[in-house]
Amino acid sequence: MAPTAAAPDVNRIAREVRSGNRTVLSRAITLIESKRPDHRRTAAALTQALLEASGNAVRVGITGVPGVGKSMTIDALGSTLTQRGHKVAVLAVDPSSRRTGGSILADKTRMAHLASDPNAFIRPSPASGTLGGVAARTRETMLLCEAAGYDVVLVETVGVGQSEIAVADMTDFFLLLMLPGAGDELQGLKKGVVELADMIAVNKADGDNIVRAKAAAAEYRAALHILAPRSPNWSPPVMAYSAMTGDGIAQLWQHVLDHRARLTASGELKALRGEQQVKWMWTMLEERMFAPLRSDRAMKNALPRVEAAVAAGHLAPAAAVEQIVELLGR
Ligand SMILES: Nc1nc2c(ncn2[C@@H]2O[C@H](COP(=O)(O)OP(=O)(O)OP(=O)(O)O)[C@@H](O)[C@H]2O)c(=O)[nH]1
Ligand SMILES: [Mg+2]
Question: Which atom of ligand 1 is nearest to the CA of 74?
């Protein structure tokens, strides 16, 4: 890394993060989430300084419709893993403003065990912004957590939009949670999300729901057969489990480990990580290139006018682009 004015500070923060200091980790994440240009530069230097120490976690993305039991599953799975000696970081990608103060708290109460577990670190989604921006912050946060010694990273996103793709793009294993109940086959999820899944797990297989959950699992298993698998070395399993009773949580994790073993052996995991890094670079570059459009005052004034003219048909889109580029060059 080229020495910069901020370097001593960056090195100190990096050292503290690596030593597992939670307070410094939290502050470093806040720095990463900041939009101030000087903070952005320090954050970039920090992720670079910690790059070598990162990358050692099992990265699992978890999605599913609201109420499917993502939080409860993360609590049960995460607690099982910390009991086995793992350090678990829980992150989220939620670009909507849905999850404001109140529901972050609600989330923590739904992750009651992990919230008080010294070997777990829960960080809610960065505050609302563009999906690209929120996802970028979460990726950087993931690197920091890994450098701090968290060897399992669970990234949650609600399964109703584009954020699933962003999460699948930053994780090794993508877990799709489903509710029991036949008939509602794919439960409003877009087919694209199902295609991303490395496993489908039907939650709430407890009490009166066991039979229904197993029936739903059989149905999804049949549905998955007609989709081409993401990897030639992995057919996504479909299982039923209960986050509430913990039944099936151990098997669920075993599938994650099996997947990892297969994809490590075939070299796919390494290739996947590499592709993700490059994609990430481009995403960040695009964001950076667009930044002047959002922050430049003259641009802020001009853009709505240009847009209105394009919408009204007075200005051709190509001519509008020329105008904007010219403004940017000033
Ligand atoms: N019976 C049963 N109920 C469950 C289970 N898992 C979750 N629930 C209940 O389902 C509801 C939703 O659970 P959450 O974990 O908050 O679901 P979520 O997917 O995180 O929901 P959002 O954060 O709103 O997207 C809660 O009332 C839970 O108590 C389970 O395994 N069995
Ligand atoms: Mg939740």
Answer: 15
